[in-house]
Amino acid sequence: MSASVAVYRNIYTEDRFRQSYGTEDKPRGGGQRFREKIAERCRCSRAACLHLLRERVPIFNWLPKYRLKKWILGDTIAGLTVGILHIPQGMAFALLTSVAPIYGLYTSFFPVVLYMLFGTGRHVSTGTFAVVSLMTGSVVEQLVPTPLQLNSSSPEAADFEAQRIGVASAVALLSGIMMLCMFGLQLGFLSTYLSEPIVKAFTSAAAFHVTISQLQSMLGLRLPRHTGPFSLFKTLASVIENLPHTNMAELLTSLVCLAILVPVKEVNMRFRQHLRTPIPVEILTVIIATGVAYASSLDSNYDVQIVGHIPAGFPSPRMPSLHKLPEVAGDTVAITFVGYAVSVSLAMIYADKHGYSIQPNQELLAHGISNTVSSLFTCFPSSATLATTNILESSGGFTQLSGLFTSLVVLIVLLLIGPLFYFLPKAVLACINVTSLRQMFLQFQDLPDLWRVSKIDFVVWLVTWLSVVVLNVDMGLAIGVVFSMMTVICRTQRAGCSVLGRASNTEIYRPLENHNKCYEVPGVKILTYNGPIYYGNRSFFREDMSRLLGLTPERIRSREKARKALEKREREAVNTVERGVANTSFSSENEFFKSETAESEVQAVLMDCSSVIFVDVAGARLFIQMCIECQKVGVCIYLANCNESVLKILTSSGLMNYMNPQHIFVTVHDAVMYIQQQKEQTPENTTTVWV
User: Fold this and answer.
1) Which of 173, 127, 160, 181 lies closest to 320 in space, CA to CA?
2) Would you place residue 178 in the very low, low, confident or very high pLDDT band (cuts 50, 70, 90)?
3) Mean pLDDT for all residues in the chain
4) Dihedral sign (CA 367, 371, 377, 378)
5) In the predicted model, is pLDDT for residue 685 greater than 60?
6) Distance (Å, rounded) from C-alpha 674 to C-alpha 90?
7) Which residues neighbour 377 within 8 Å (Cβ) at sequence distance 6 or greater?
8) 607 in helix, strand or coil?
9) Where are the alpha helices (DSSP H) in 108-222?
10) What are the transmembrane regions (predicted)?
11) Which of the given ranges, 154-158, 291-295, 310-314, has the highest pLDDT on average?
12) Higher local confidence (pLDDT), 622 or 572
């Protein structure tokens, strides 16, 4: 099937098009409009209050629309399944945070309830997250290091645990306050600076940190925890050095747990389409291991480290260690960004999958309230979690109501069952930690596709991963973000300038380097720049323009000298004519000069600005400078496809003092038609375009 397009219209400059189709300029009255907006926002009414309530507390929006018969079963099963998983993972991730396991159960309860009230992600499961727990644990270890000789039953041990959870709660409080401040400033967009390659590389590298940090618990070694740069290698060296002191009972316990956890998790993953709910292998392992440890007295007979006393009941409110806030502020910034970025990324993934939308700024409010309130109940920082969110969605969860059933399971454990885990070996929790990282390790499978699609993103992934592994989690993340932003800056700096050619009998113009059947319009050099023009790339832009136009200093001087000589001869010719003598030799020489210029030189430069998204003051001044240089060599400058913001900056910078405003056109083809008609200068010429 073939089709054709025929267009016959006027040539449009920007001014002419604006006069014909533009919106009439209205009086601004900015101050009045601002006052009206403030008054509208501050106006109180019943409808406005209800709208604000539904917007800021989303449960009042989705709960009245809840489809009880259709959704309640899926939410119940998914919530109970995730709740059962929260129990072992909460205790296990508490070890990563360097606090007692009971605080992991608290962190698996309060944030879940609060997110159910304020969150917008229907399939998001919040609670303890390995990466956030590891980063918080590093802060705790720096401020409250573990003494090598500490009797777990002594009063000093209780005071030591209180200090540690005080620091962890302070991090949670400050993280929540930061999120609330970001919500107030509507800074939800900041999560976009953590691109997908950065998040995946960061979590994958952090999984190595988690695994190495758990080796000492799996081997029964009592070693100090290393923090700071090269902590992974320091920990690994310390473990290897102390291998002769391995507790064989704990090593055997770890091997048995891994032999159970790894295959069953693989079955859950491979057959998740056929399983109504995944096999709760973690809680089963915890129950069996606790029973075996109690029956065999592993703690007394084989010196196996156990969880110890887990108090029953609800935690009483307690203020975090507020005097530690200045010391944890720097690390908390990284923890806040990581927790929020992972949470929003997960929420968006499942929102896109199920056809609904989330509000990033409302997510800031939800996680901010969760962390702030939870910190008052001895919780450490929380966020959305990869494993439980995946299980919640695959188990058939529909809405945030599944969080109610999840919290009920954890609440029952807190009130009744918690003390029964007294004899649970810590090696079992370490194994649960390691096996929960399966998804993070599998992210290496994305590398071949990433290399094929974008080599720059591949390098960003690699730099972030190496930085996190070699240096540290927070420092590596900072390096990854900075490097990623540098790649964006470098790409805008080296955007590249191309010469456009016209496809025969069309108004289509394409780069000649990729379309060799297009041809250059005689006497017109059409250029396009594929990026912004700002202070960072103005030198590269000038270099490309000078190369393509041949604007070398020598050529500019010679052409300007020839132009001045020509003007001088013209004045002499006028004087000669006035005296009544005709200088025929000059006339022929002048015509020869003009014809030579017309045939061998470019008389017009047309700049296609369709890809120039913005121009700053430095870029505008460069435009003016290029315009002056082109005028010196007798070349006219034309612009086409300028967006409103670019055109406004160029005009405000004084470009129109050096350029005819009628040389700015709506499209490239309009400009080309105008230039060709000006060259022909026939009486019957009309300002029309025929394609």
Assistant:
1) 173
2) very high
3) 84
4) positive
5) no
6) 72
7) 106, 110, 315, 317, 318
8) strand
9) 110-118, 130-143, 155-184, 196-219
10) 71-87, 93-117, 124-145, 165-189, 328-351, 371-392, 404-424, 458-484
11) 291-295
12) 622
List b or e across 618-656, with b for residues whose CB sees 16 or more CB atoms inside 10 angstroms.
bbbbbbbebbebbebbbbbbbbbbbeeebbebbbebebe
Question: CA-based angle 361:366:367, to the nearest 5?
Answer: 100
Place of tokens 């199920």: 354
Residue in this structure with the two tokens 């132009």, named with its chain if needed: 563
For residue 577, give Cα distances in angstroms to 565, 571, 582, 592, 593: 18, 10, 6, 20, 20
**How does pLDDT run across 252-301, given as a tens digit for each residue?**
999 999 999 999 988 888 887 787 778 888 889 999 999 999 998 888 88
- pTM for the model stands at 0.79
- 535 near 493, Cβ under 8 Å? no
Asked if residue 116 lies in contact with residue 58, where contact means CB atoms within 8 angstroms, the answer is no
615 pairs with which residues across the strands?
533
Q: Which domains does the chain have, with CATH numbers?
A: 68-145+156-490 (no CATH), 497-562+601-681 (3.30.750.24)
Rounded CA-CA distance 187/61 in Å is: 23
210: tokens are: 């988690």
Burial class (CB in 10 A: 0-12, 13-18, 19+), 86: buried
Residue 567 DSSP symbol:
H
The phi and psi torsions of 621 (rounded to 5 degrees) equal: -65, -35
Average pLDDT of span 174-199: 88
Q: How far is Cα 437 from Cα 442, in angstroms, rounded to an integer?
A: 9
Q: Which residue has the tokens 């806030």?
A: 325
Reading the block at residue 666, the tokens are 């709506």
Instruction: State both tokens at 549.
Output: 């136009």
Q: What is the pLDDT of residue 336?
A: 92
Residue 375 pLDDT class (50, 70, 90 cuts): very high
